[in-house]
Write a structure and sequence with these properties.
The protein has about 180 residues and is mostly beta strands. It is about 0% helix and about 45% strand. Strands 1-2-3-4-5 form a 5-stranded antiparallel beta sheet, with no helix packed on it. Strands 6-7-8-10-11 form a 5-stranded antiparallel beta sheet, with no helix packed on it. Strand 6 and strand 7 form a beta hairpin. The chain is globular, with a radius of gyration of 18 Å.
Amino acid sequence: SITTLEITGDTTLDGEDYYVIEGHCMCADTIRYIGEDKDRYYIYYDGARHLLYDFNLVKGDTLKIKAPFSASQDSIYIRIDSVGKILVSGEELTVQYINCYLNDPGSTHWADWGKILIKGIGSDWCLTPQFSLCEIQTQGLSCVQYEDGRILQFDESKVCLYVNTDSRRSNSSSVYPNP
């Protein structure tokens, strides 16, 4: 199935700027607000700002992330295995290669969040972690379309499906009589 996440606006919460997000991944609660501050990305929920991505981290670092994504889990941990660059549709992107854990790094319980965090985009799987019991039915990130029309396609072997948001948002339609 195809899942879309879209920035539909912006807002200010507790004096911080956030993008308004529409959509969600299969088993995650909807995260409505994401903000950025230099190389850090935050989500806003339960009246507070929570760190989601930190591109200042290097190989061997661990980040504990508050997890509104599951009623059974308070937090997850990501371990940075390495950092680097990837080339997607001719653009060089900064990435962190990761492993996710539900308890602490090295535990046998894990969370699905893909294998790569991409600066300015998010995970190669879902915007937020998914838990291993979810049995996700989506296939990870395939494309990103920027406001200026550029499209990054992450898997050239797959068709890049996207929704033209300008036409989808039309508030009017015309119906002509059948002669």
